[in-house]
Amino acid sequence: MISALSKEFFLFLSKNRTLNRAAKKWGLKLGASQVVAGNSIEAMIVKVRELNEKDLVCTLDHLGEFVSSKEEAATATAAAIRTLEAIEKEGLNSHLSVKLTQLGVDIDREFCVNNMRSILETAQKFKNFVRIDMEDYLHYKITLNILQELRETFQNVGTVMQAYLFCAEEDMQKLQGIPLRIVKGAYKESPKVAFQHKKEIDENFMKLIKIHLLGGNYTAVATHDHHIIAKVKQFVEEQQIPRDQFEFQMLYGFRTEMQQSLADEGYKMRVYVPYGSDWFAYYMRRLAERPQNVSFALKGLFLK
Ligand code: FDA
């Protein structure tokens, strides 16, 4: 009950535009610096380099939410391109993750597609890969639709499939050959479209991972759940799925020991590294996912 309430509360805060706007001026507060790799590109480079030195590869997310003008979306596009340029210039081992709402999908679909094209052209020039994060169900269909349009020109783009969605299995069949990150799903969705119980979500999660792997597709298993990770390890062993056909992914600052031990065991371990001043909504969603994460925030109150 308490955890359900806290989930609602933090998701509510994550959507509060006034707080999000104010937080940009605060700098990283409330413990956010433990899960956000700095405010600036320079700070991010230091953190990614540290991770790479430990055999952890990355995907960078220049944070941004609630884009309501073309100007803001163009700024976000430029930031994504700058991130790709920094990866190349600094020799970092990192992909890029982006959100279509940041790139203006709610303002003008074609404008957003063009922004994605500019990002993908830069990534292609540097032989890099861009993943479109999956947002709430409201943006689900348009995200898949744009992905398929972009895949007609670009091979270096993939997306995310959320195991809480009833339609995930069917839709995944249409995404054969496309690299997918598979996750449980981070948003609050209606029981009309999504499983609500952990057991059902976990079962569907494993099912999707197996289908995508057995289809010969490159699969990113993104979870901090050691039960799922153990099952995936066993499954790939039994099915003799080569290690270069999948990777594990976790968020920056979460289960760092497990990240390291997976890398040490020879699995590809990719850390999702968010950075930038627009940290508030991202951080609130992480607190919503796991009430224990609130201890980050409480400790953070005392961190300078
Ligand atoms: P979950 O939160 O269900 O935890 C299961 C169990 O794992 C817990 O009961 C506990 O035992 C253990 N555990 C989990 N976290 C722990 C911790 N920090 N310390 C110790 N034990 C812990 N979502 C989305 O909708 N769209 C997206 O694009 C993405 N992208 C994305 C990228 C990456 C790299 C990750 C890791 C996640 C996402 N997500 C996402 C978020 C995802 O959908 C999901 O909300 C979170 O990962 C939380 O679910 P988990 O699978 O991690 O485990």
TrEMBL record:
Pathway named in the protein's UniProt entry: Amino-acid degradation; L-proline degradation into L-glutamate; L-glutamate from L-proline: step 1/2
Any Pfam family: Pro_dh
Annotated EC: 1.5.5.2
GO biological process, one term: L-proline catabolic process to L-glutamate
Cofactor: FAD
Entry superkingdom: Bacteria
Cofactor notes: Binds 1 FAD per subunit.
Domain Proline dehydrogenase: 47-296
Keywords: FAD, Flavoprotein, Nucleotide-binding, Oxidoreductase, Proline metabolism
Annotated substrate binding sites: K99, R285, R286
Name the record gives this protein: proline dehydrogenase
Catalytic activity: L-proline + a quinone = (S)-1-pyrroline-5-carboxylate + a quinol + H(+)
GO MF annotation terms: nucleotide binding; proline dehydrogenase activity
Residues bound to FAD: M134, Q162, K184, G185, A186, K198, T223, H224
